[in-house]
Sequence to fold (586 residues):
Amino acid sequence: MISNDEKRFLEPGKHLMMGNVAMSEGALSAGASFFGGYPITPSTEVIEHLSKRLPEVGGCCMQMEDELASINSVIGASLVGAKALTATSGPGFSLMAETISMAANLEIPFVFCDVQRNGPGNGYVTEPHHNDIGFVRFAGNGEFQVIALAPMNCQELFDLTITAFNFAETYRCPVFILSDAYLGHLHEVINIPPKEEILKRVIPRELPEDTSGRMFTYKDRVSGEYVTPKPPQMGTEYCPGLFIHQPHGPDGLPTPKPMEFIEAIIDKININKDKICLTDTYKIEDAEILIIAYGLPVRSSYRAVDIARKEGIKVGLFRLITIWPFHDEVVKEVVKNKKAIIVPELNYTGYIAEQVERVTDLKTPIIRVPKVCEFHHPNDILEKIKEVA
Amino acid sequence: MARYEIRIIGFGGQGVITLSKMIITAASLYEGLAATQTEAYSAAARGGKCWAEVVVDLDQDQSQIDYPKALAPYDFSIVLSEEGASEMKKGDLKDEKNTGFLLWDTSTIKKFRTAKRVKALGIPIQKLALEKFGNSVFGNTILFGAFMKISNIFSEEAAIETIKKFVPESTLDTNLKAFEFGKQKGEKFLQTLMEAN
Fold:
């Protein structure tokens, strides 16, 4: 647990830092006290930074023998009451998938920072590539829902990491921060708010109030709503014994009702989409053409919108800050009556374009702008805008 | 929006990345301009070719650099290795008044054809740092001084604050001297440019 609160927070004001470091500082501000990981380019600065910072605040940073051990240590730490995280890149992430699905099923909260890079081991490992977007959504066997956030600058890497920990505490599910090789190594000035302001934003890890043994999400019989209790801590009266061997049901008790159980772990997140799905808009009021973007390409899109507007083209930008869950209803509304939708993505598959296609009228053209290893220059997007204008 | 694109190229260990961090610190932390910096990392930053880029927006109202990568033609290029010199073309630098400068190290680069065709200042940085200040690490501060004067994108106060932040206190005096030396080199260079016009 964090014992040295003095050093947990950086001095308020402007700091110049690298994306990976901003993410790590965000985790410390959110109250993270355990990091378990195995270094991998381009996420290594996270473990480097936290190996210095966590011991200063009475936390623990462990370099494990491999990725499987790393994620298992994170789950273990969370089970005994620590806010915990790991950071890795695509190849490490695929090795961790087994435990992620277990944690999701057992509603063990943790934060996962994926600094995405191109290719497998022998790819262009220092180049950005949003190729884990699909993997994150179904990271492991079984059915469950995760939350994934896509920051676009260093300030957001700090802020959204706090949000990620809050989501993990509230909904008890794996929460991903989708950074990438470029963003992780970008240096920018970030503004650190005063300690009091950060503490107001942070949801602390607390013991459950309910001692009836209801440790998991259940449907309240009276209100019909899902209730997610605070995560139980092993070794306390709230969590007697090794509950992890037992299946559990929607009443929060270890009863084998598979359908209701799956409903509960997916719907507890889906019914809260309005709170979870963070979005932003830019000049969409009168837009005829709409750009839908997330992560780094958002920055190029802002520029493209500005240039196109100067030339009289009515174009706007809809930004997804939360990628998963995908808010069907909201996107359905913004794409209505548009001349065309442009989806610039830092991958070839177009994971989000597929989602947009699902909720858009068949007549509306959806134009993908794929890029791999280098992100979009504003002109790449502008070209497409002009094509459809 | 008034982007100022800077690219530094050399080999690992020369201080390419440190210099880029000093530039962004002075421009963003002390001058309050929006700026981004990226660098070669992992194996690329050790031993072999090493590069770093800084983009500064000279427009005070800009809060974020939309496109954080430095784009050629650059406003300012610093070249410290043969490899970097051989890769550089004239078109890599802006051909406009008060911009498109090249700063290079004549003690590590023997042949630099492009340097003759652009607004270039060559200083035997490594050699001078060793001879005048006793250690080649002071080469960075010489470059920083020359960069500050020639680019004129942040104030001398901002530059001095940055040096104080970056160097150990015991070497501060020598660093400030090296900075002053670089600044004068930059000043002389600007004068010769003016006279040539």
Chain B has six helices and six strands.
